[in-house]
Every structure is written in C-alpha cells, then in structure tokens.
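Data availability (excerpt). The following record was deposited with the supplementary files.
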Amino acid sequence: MATLARAVRRLSARDSGPVLDLLDGDPVGNAFLRSELRLGALTGSGWWGVEHRGLITAALLAGALVIPCVPDQEDAELLAGVLDRHSPPRMMVGRREQVHALHRARRLAPQPREVRDPQPLMALCRGRLRAEGSPSVRRARLGDLDLLVVAAAAMHREEMGIDPLAIDPAGWRARMAVLIDRGWSWVWIERGEVLFKAELSAWTAEVVQVQGVYTAPSARGRGVATAGLAAVCEALHTEVPTCSLYVNHFNVAAVRVYTRLGFETVGEFATIIL
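Predicted structure:
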C-alpha cells in the first residue's frame, strides 16, 4: 500500500515538472526559483522538496542563501530539519510568512544578525509605466566591467555593511561578469562614472526580478533613478510582461521612486540575515 506520509528528499531533474507546477502558483513571488529552474538548477544538489500524495508540495533552494517555496506550515517543519542537518544558511529570503515559518521551525537556528521585514514585493505590468526612460541607459558590456564592479560593491557596502571586494574580489568580479554575459545588467555611465545601474536576479517568460538598483551619491536627488529604472523597464517590457522587485520598507526614497514609476505592492518578502 502506498504511504500517504509527507517525505522530504533531494530533488533532481526528473522532478522538474512537479516543481514547476508548484512554483507556477505564485509566479511573482517565486520568480527566482522559477528562473533557476529554467537555467537547469535541478541538476545540482541544492534543491530539496516535500512529496505528498505524489505531488511536490514544497521546495527550497538551499545553500548560503536559502530561497523557499513552502506554502504549508507542516512542510516548513520538515524542511527546517534539512537546513539544520545539511545546509545551514547565512541568509533566507522569500515570502515573509514562509521565511519566518522555516526559521521558527529550525532547532539549531542561530539568533539572526538582522531581520528585514517587511520588504514590499512590487510589480509593474507592461503598459503601466508612468515615466520616460533616459536614452543614456543601456545594457552593460564587458568593457564596463571594471566600473560596474566598483559601483556594485559600493551599493553592497551601503546596503549590507560588507565590502565584497575585501572578502572575495575575484568572485565578485566573476559574478558581475556573468550578469553582463546574460544581458542582465544595465548602466548609465557619464565621464567614467556609473551614475545608475540595475541588474536582474531572475528571468522567466512571465516576470523578471530586478535587483541592484543603485544611483551614485553624486547623482541623487536629480531624477536619475526614476529615468534610469524607467529605461530598464521599457527595455524589459519588450520581452517580458511584468517587472518585479522587493525593497526594504525603510528605504522611503526607493519606494517613492518605484511607486512613481507605477510599481504596485503585490505582497511582502522578508530577509533573515544570520
């Protein structure tokens, strides 16, 4: 007789269909996981899931960064054990109720260094952009890498209080090079300075997730962020119907820019930094 118990296990390429069925229930909230699935991530060993009655009812991508899709509290308890036994995270990001449920269920979870909650999850659909983009914004090229590495590191220091160039400069440079190679990086450069930049963290047929939106301190307060991100969204909307992002609720200036552009709040994320 087949068991009806929930079972937690590593996922593999053969699970792609059931996992996609799960993730498609929330295309904006699961944009990162859906993008990783599209890029073939299930061939790696970082994916775990819960199987119940022949369905995948929860999944997470484990590692230093944990991204969950765990709609059911019971599944969160099962997957929390995976993190304790196999892959203690440094950071967890996702739908706020799922991130908190997963963290609460961990028996060996350390006290968070920081909790960013709530982080409005915002989306902008094609045809609803309210501002014109700057013609100076373009996709980054490999020749921009040196400038982009510095600008992205400056943003990371400002956002996270950590200098990636002091920890792993080669890895940081390689990461930015991958984004350029994928066509996931946009820049606005004048006189050898990156005035504005933005990257993507996810790309699917239905939605992209924007990250790394940054304006150089010398260019702030002049509408650069609005015109810059409008140009990025204009370009993306020729290929994908929805742009999404999430933002710290206390970053009032950024929320104001996104709202001005036409982004609407469609949910809430949370980030737990360990």
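Summary of structural features: The longest helix spans residues 145-160.
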